Amino acid sequence: MEPNRFEELVLSHLARLTEDMSGLKSDITGLKEDTSWLKEDVSGLKQDMSILKDDVSGLKQDVSILKDDVSGLKQDVSILKDDVSGLKDKLNLVYEHVVVLTENQTVDSKRITKVEQDTTSLAELYGKNEVEIRNIKSILI
Fold first, then answer.
1. What is the pLDDT of residue 8?
2. How far apart are CA 42 and CA 136, in angstroms?
3. pLDDT at res. 7
4. How far apart are the first and last CA of the chain?
5. Quick one: residue 135, left, alpha or beta (phi over 0 = left, psi -120 to 50 = alpha)?
6. Please, what's the largest Cα pairwise distance for the chain?
7. In Å, what is the CA distance from 116 to each residue of 70, 101, 111, 119, 127?
8. How far apart are CA 61 and CA 129, in angstroms?
9. What is d(CA 118, CA 133) in angstroms, rounded to the nearest whole number?
């Protein structure tokens, strides 16, 4: 091969390599820019993840507080149920006493009616004036 031809071939290859290198440099620059954008995106995602973790932590605390509140409310409901049960027992006792009092009142009313009838009968028997005289004597004595 002739030296000129060889030089031309070498120069031609060098020119193509230089063009390819220029393209590669552009590609590498583009990749560097893309990498920079990706790093920024990852950094933003990390910040978002940190915020989400804080939010989840806050929600966990809120859930814990709510669980405690629910537990307290369940205890309150249990106490109220016991109170209602006690009140029902007392109300039943009141009903029983009212029944007894009503029965006693009925018996007493019947007795009073009988005593009034007996008194009326006695007054008729002895005379109304005689009863009045006795009443006055008993007041005076």
1. 85
2. 117
3. 85
4. 173
5. alpha
6. 178
7. 66, 22, 9, 5, 15
8. 94
9. 18
- Encoding tokens for residue 85? 């049960």
Model confidence pLDDT, tens digit, residues 54-92: 999 999 999 999 999 999 999 999 999 999 999 999 999
Task: Please state the domain count of the chain.
Answer: 1
CA-wise closest residue to 74 among 64, 63, 66: 66
Domain ranges, residue 65: 3-140
- Judged by DSSP in three states, 85 sits in helix
For residue 122, CA distances in Å to 53, 110, 117, 132, 138 come to 101, 18, 9, 12, 17
Residues of the chain predicted below pLDDT 70: 1, 3, 123
pLDDT of residue 43: 94
What is the C-alpha to C-alpha distance for residues 33 and 46, in angstroms, rounded to an integer? 20
Sign of the torsion formed by the C-alpha atoms of 80, 85, 86 and 92: positive
Q: Which amino acid is at 15?
A: A
* Overall pTM > 0.70: no
Tokens representing 106 are 């009925």
Spatial contact of 122 and 131, defined as CB atoms under 8 Å apart: yes
